[in-house]
Design a protein that fits this description.
mainly alpha; 2 domains; three-stranded antiparallel sheet; 73% helix; 3% strand; elongated
Length: 288
């Protein structure tokens, strides 16, 4: 058996697994992309997969210098993930169907290359979790409290501005109009996008693991505060300009303003952490 034939045989298992993966998960992946396109809460997910691919490509030299030690445990991971797909398909539970994609890819890495390769690729694989929409039950359990929190925060600022206001749940009654903080105004969209951005920003700006986690976690209160400011700003505009200021262009523009404000606050937090936890001498670590 010549060298070229041996190489061809070595490539057969990964090619077969990749082909089987595409055939099995093509409907799941196309449905996932369709979900991103129609749900603005997950529009940021279009960037997650390319960024994950780049992060994996960034590790190519480390992977090339790492020995390949396939493990049969990978088959167990693949089997468990396929069982998750089966349960999700039977119960029409899209979250289980989608999360099994990442499980199968993880199992394939272990089965074909081993645990050292998985360690190197752990962050890119984990980052792909951010492209999976939250289950609807959990989503609404998060969104509604955020609606109330944003409403209360906005009303508190309106009180400080000495604007007469009355709050009933997520409804804000002003002198000339009534504002309702709907699910779209709860801030969960900016929270999900900002959290994804915070994970990446922390990864690229600091090698300290604790600082990276802190930056990601603090993106949550930052998004909540910024959205509360948006609600208050909408109320102030509606009071002094008119009810039309709470809709249309101003409403859309305020969403972008709030996100940019959140990102500026995130940069400020990251800068503080860089001073508190200075980077060690030498090159930043490329892997997590």
């Amino acid at each position: 058996m010549n060298v070229s034939t041996r190489r061809a045989i070595l490539w057969l298992p990964p090619i077969a697994l990749a082909a089987a993966f595409l055939i099995l998960y093509w409907p799941v992946m196309t449905d996932l992309v369709w979900n991103w396109s129609r749900d603005s809460n997950y529009s940021h997910a279009f960037l997650v997969l390319p960024v994950s691919a780049y992060l994996a490509w960034e590790r190519r030299r480390e992977l090339a210098s790492t020995a390949i030690r396939p493990s049969l445990i990978g088959l167990l991971v693949i089997g468990a993930s396929l069982a998750t797909l089966l349960v999700g398909t039977a119960g029409v539970e899209f979250f289980l169907m989608r999360i099994s994609v990442i499980g199968v890819v993880t199992g394939m890495v272990i089965f074909l290359a081993g645990w050292q390769w998985l360690r190197i690729l752990l962050f890119p694989l984990a980052f792909t979790l951010l492209m999976i929409p939250i289950p609807p039950v959990l989503f609404y359990q998060i969104a509604f409290p955020l609606q109330l929190l944003s409403t209360r925060f906005g009303v508190a600022i309106l009180d400080l501005a000495r604007i007469p206001v009355l709050r009933e749940g997520n409804v804000i009654a002003l002198a000339h109009t009534t504002l309702e903080v709907t699910e779209a105004c709860s801030g969960i969209r900016s929270l999900l996008s900002l959290f994804t951005l915070a994970v990446l920003y922390g990864y690229f700006t600091t090698p300290n693991q604790g600082a990276r986690v802190a930056i990601a976690v603090l993106s949550v209160p930052i998004a909540i505060v910024a959205n509360g400011l948006r609600v208050a700003g909408t109320g102030i505009a509606a009071q002094y300009i008119g009810p039309a200021a709470a809709t249309g262009f101003f409403h859309e523009f305020s969403g972008w303003t709030v996100f940019m404000t959140s990102f500026a606050m995130l940069i400020g937090v990251s800068t503080v952490f860089r001073f508190i936890t200075p980077a060690p001498a030498g090159k930043l670590e490329a892997a997590v």
